[in-house]
Known about the structure:
The structure holds 2 protein chains of 2 kinds. By secondary structure, chain A is mainly α.
Amino acid sequence: MSNENSTLYSKKNLPGNFAKIGQMLLAVGLILVVLAYFVDHTRSAFNNLILLMFLTSIGVGSLFLVAMEYLGGAVWSTPFRRITEFFAAVILVIPLAAIPIYFNLHDLFHWTHAEAVAEDKILAGKSSYLNETFFIIRIVFFIAVWFLFYFLIIKNSKKQDSSGDPKLTTRNIKLSAVFIPIFGLTITFASIDWVMSLEPHWFSTIFGVYFFSGTILAALAFTTFIVVYMNEKGLLIKGIKKDHYYSLGAYLFAFINFWAYIAFSQYMLIWYANLPEETFWFLQRWEGGWMYISIALIIIHFVVPYFGLLSQPSKMNPKRLMFMSIWILFAHIIDLYWLIMPTYSKDSVPLGWIELAFPILAIGAVITVFSIKAKKENHVPIGDPKLKRGLDFRL
Amino acid sequence: MTDKKLYSLTAVFDKPDDIINAAEKVSDSGYTKYDINTPYPVHGLDGAMKLPPSKLGYSALVLGLSGTFAAVLMIYFMSVYDYPIVIGGKPFFALPAFVPIMFEITVLAASIGTVLTMLFFFFKFPNNSHPLLETDYMKLVSVDKYGVSIQADDPKFNEDEISKLYNDLGASKILPVYWDLEEVLYEHKIVEPKFLGMLALTAIIVSGTVYFSLNKLMFMEPFSWMMEQEKLSPQQKSEFFSDGYSMRPPVEGAIARGDLPYQFADKPEMAAKILSNPLVSSEENLLLGKTKYNIYCSPCHGYFGEGDSRLRGQFPNPPSLHSQKLRDWTDGRIYHVIEVGQNVMPAYNTQMTNNEKWATILYIRALQRSLNAKESDL
Lengths: 395, 378
């Protein structure tokens, strides 16, 4: 504890009701989810997929943001990197959300039905990739890799709190350099396996990038919300100011545009080529009421946050940032809903308490994981050699 | 020296932190007409100088949006009004296809427009001089020093006070900057023969170079190899034949191999009587017929010839191919329909080879038999 920074920092706990809200959401969510499984099994399984993808977004996306900071040598985000690390801990609960999927494979994935594959040339052709054994192996592998890098990177970061050893930063930079391409591949294939294969005849080569853009946006939104919230209450460390807010806002803004860019690219190429084996996926999302969700998605996921964060002052305004972060999380859930649910119900938009139960559980789980972590550990990487520069950061 | 008028008093600092500190102190002391010059953008200066956010963003927004609007108008004029062409079966006003162009033109208009706004409104073009240019001060701060310059027309300007402030702040050098009288007296006009002359010269040189390199240089072959030959290229005029065509039509009455012209164009009864199917209904022929039928005929006639078209009412539905009439028709009569079409049904003579047509007919026969089997089929 000889580090110069540690004198500046004294840990302040989160308000008590913060953890309580998380636990309450978690409990309510859990009860509703169990109930939902009894009421409508298949529908719950599809919603469970949304839950799984959401947790993956937050956990793995946050770990990616941490790795980006190390690899890019960024200093502005160092003072609150620990917050993002807490969110990365959501990786640890991904398996819990994935287990129900394993027991419902037949309800979710058409390609798991051997009879269907046998009489379908296209599925038969894809069966060397899309078969249950390989699927399970892949999922276990993805989760294992995420666990591995989570523990490696976070361990070094934590160790630095007491030792302040700059070598740990170097080690994490190397780890990040390995992790980022692996992240790119695992997130792509995870999205292909969990979401794209719901329509096993359909394919889009940009799908992984599409999911990635939403992932980072959601992870970033959680970090932004908590950082602004805690900093406004003075629970972080002195020195986080408008310049940091602006950077977070700009990061969000960049990914809002990136998402729109990728979403539009995917749509335009398929619309232009007009091949029936590709267009049906978008047609599904234009018929039986899904049209409204599709249009709402454009407005909620792009138009509103775009104008909400366009001007410079809005990126520095704490209220605006917090509102937009929550908005973006909501948009990400809609995005996942739009990706997954049309396979469950083609002719109508299923909206009921079941669709609420899983997001409640998701948010509750994230907040609970966060508050457990926040209770045990420092909120700021006090041993990080970049911390001082990060606090001095100016635009 | 005495005839020179003071423009500003400048100070040079060695470290970026010093300049931020200096900027804060200078603005706190109430000076309003001053500037900071650094070799690279120093983070935090805007805040230290208490500069309000730049207004340039608004001009970028307006220009960008006018770019979007102009792009829509332009594409609308071209693809909907002036020269409408159906591309890939899309409507003339195909918004998704326009979006990339709208996006690019928005960015282009915003960026070029912003630079021009900056030039004309902020730098007051055609003014191209500034008293700080080519001073020792500017030379230092363009390399590795950080400078502040307080202008003489600042209401609080007082040389001694400012020198003292600079010294307190730890300036490494204090330099007065004077107006260059020649520059002060010079009147800038937008129509300046010298300037316009230079502009014209630049335009000629640039366009000339581009023209030469794209149209001439690119086509100069170092070796012509066998590109130049004593022969006529397609479409070239022939000096030999009196009609001037270098591409000769075949001799009258010549028939390409395997391509007997159809002789019964307006005599369906003759076709029905004389033409007969040269193919036997082998598995191979039937499979060929099935493929061709599914490609060419099924969109309108349905996969099983029942007239259930897949065109969703965009083309009149044909009658069933299972009618008594059709079953009584000879192969030659059906061949005739494929060859010349019938009313709204287009002719397929150019799309299919003769063999394929006959194979298709075999397949149609098989379809017919599937619904109306003969006793001998049992």
